[in-house]
Amino acid sequence: MQRAHLFRGKLQGSLRGLVDGFSIPPKLKRLRTGSVGPWRQPPVRECMLAIAWAKAGFPSSAPHRYLPTPALLTRIRPTPVTLRMSQISPSDKPRSDSSLPDDLLPPVEPPSAGFIVKLFLVPAIIVCLVVFVVFAFNWLVHLGSNPQAYLDDMERGAANSWQRAHDFVQELRGRPELRKDEKVAARVAKLLDGRLARELGTGDQKATADEVQYRVFLCKALGEFEVPTGMPILMRVAETPSGGNDNQLVIRLAAVESLALLIDNVRKSNPDFADPKLLDLLLEISSRQSEPDGKVRSRAAFALGIYGGDQAVKRLEEMTDAFREPYADARFNAAIGLARLGNTAGVPILLDMLDPEQQAGVESEDDENTKAYKRHLIQVNGLRAVELLIQSKASFDRSELKKAVQHLRDAPGLPTGVKLKSQEVLNMLEA
Fold first, then answer.
1. Using the 8-state DSSP alphabet, how is residue 415 labeled?
2. In the chain, what percentage of residues exceed pLDDT 90?
3. Regarding predicted confidence, which is higher, 24 or 236?
4. Going by C-beta distance under 8 Å and a sequence separation of 6 or more, which residues neighbour residue 255?
5. Which pLDDT band, with edges at 50, 70 and 90, does 21 fall under?
6. Alpha carbons 229 and 363: distance in angstroms, whole number
7. What distances in angstroms separate CA 47 from CA 38, 50, 77, one per listed residue?
8. What is the DSSP string of 378-400?
9. How far apart are CA 300 and CA 286, in angstroms?
């Protein structure tokens, strides 16, 4: 007990010596003099005073060894300090927010001219520069491109005539006024007629490959026009039998595709355009009895869907029958053509095209990646056909198509583009 009193006295003296060495503010001085709080033990009061003084951050020259240790503090259990409002000076009382003067708020000033320039003028200049760069780039790309010069080089028999024909096709797609020029179309038709008089090889040598590319691009160029000047020469190429020559088959396919495109382009300015000879040709090369190659029949079915008419619809309905038309791509194009014409006879074929595990159109492919790519292409074409059928305002039961499109949308591993297209068509079916 005597040792405890002796330790308490030493602790009290040490703390008082620590505190007396500072300039104590009035608030803490009242705590030190004992005027506040019912502390029963003087050492405890001095200990808490030292702790408060240290926490206040005032400078101290006293060594830290005079402060109480954590072990000692854990043994001390003081009672809470209670302050009376009368013991706090008016300057120490907190002020309410309502007593703050208005001049403490930042002043409101109108925006300066420099600020307005930074906010509006600088972004506008940046946008103008970007637009200028885009137009300048397009100008540089087309600098020196002269369609007439392309035709002159091809008529002169330039070594890179097939490349000139390719560039001429690109120029046609970007120049509407050129697509309506009958004289230019006649010059292209004459070029193609001159190439057809030459014998086409059967190999894959560079000269033969360049000749094939040249004729293909000339056919594509005639399909881009909006005048029917090149239609007779395209019909002649399309009706020429391939004779087992793969190169000739490639040119025939390009000619039939160009005929379909040319029909659609001519009807932009002449909706009533019709050519009985062209229809007879398409009916002939779409028949299995007269055309053994399924690829040609497939392109012919697509062209019949563009041409339209009762005879075309009848042939397309026949082509949706797998017994009459074993080639899957020809059946698919027939169903697409019927949907474009507002005929629902091809809906069963469309359901097959929308199947996530569709196999009929990919059986001829050996590579798995090629099979997956072609399957997705068939699915997209099926979705577009459903879209065409809806836009035709034809009345039909949408429940089966809706179920098929929804099943396709929820199929795992579906590309994002196909999934988004599925959702778009599904919304149209539900509208």
1. -
2. 52
3. 236
4. 219, 234, 235, 237, 238
5. very low
6. 40
7. 14, 5, 11
8. HHHHHHHHHHHHHHTT-----HH
9. 5
**Mind listing the pLDDT tens digit for each residue in 412-421?**
989 999 999 9
Q: pTM score > 0.70 for this model?
A: no
Token code pair at residue 174: 């970007």
Half-sphere exposure of 83 (CA within 13 A, CB side): 10
Q: Which two tokens stand for residue 219?
A: 């056919």
- DSSP secondary structure letters along 86-145: GGS-GGGSPPPGGGS-GGGSPPP-PPPHHHHIIIIIHHHHHHHHHHHHHHHHHHHHSTT-
- How far apart, in Å, are the Cα atoms of 19 and each of 15, 48, 52, 64, 203? 6, 11, 11, 13, 108
Tokens of 233: 């020469």
- Give CA–CA dist 303/289, Å, rounded: 18
Structure tokens at 306: 């563009």
Query: What is the rounded CA–CA span in Å between residue 10 and residue 418?
Result: 87
364 or 153, higher pLDDT: 153
- Amino acid identity for residue 385 in this structure: A
Q: How far apart are CA 9 and CA 212, in angstroms?
A: 114
Q: What's the DSSP call for residue 79?
A: P
Q: Token digits for 52?
A: 């408060």
- Contact between residue 19 and residue 50 where contact means Cβ atoms under 8 Å apart: yes
Q: How far apart are CA 267 and CA 308, in angstroms?
A: 12
In this structure, of 4-13, 96-105, 123-132, 350-359, the range with the lowest mean pLDDT score is 4-13
Torsion over CA of 62, 63, 69 and 73, rounded to 10 degrees? 10
Range scoring the smallest mean pLDDT among 97-111, 130-144, 322-336: 97-111
CA 181 to chain centre: 37
Contact of 351 with 403, CB cutoff 8 Å: no
d(CA 249, CA 202): 11
- Domain 275-431, what architecture? Alpha Horseshoe (1.25)
Coil, strand or helix at 198 = coil
Confidence check: pLDDT of 83 > 90: no
Mean pLDDT across 75-80:
47
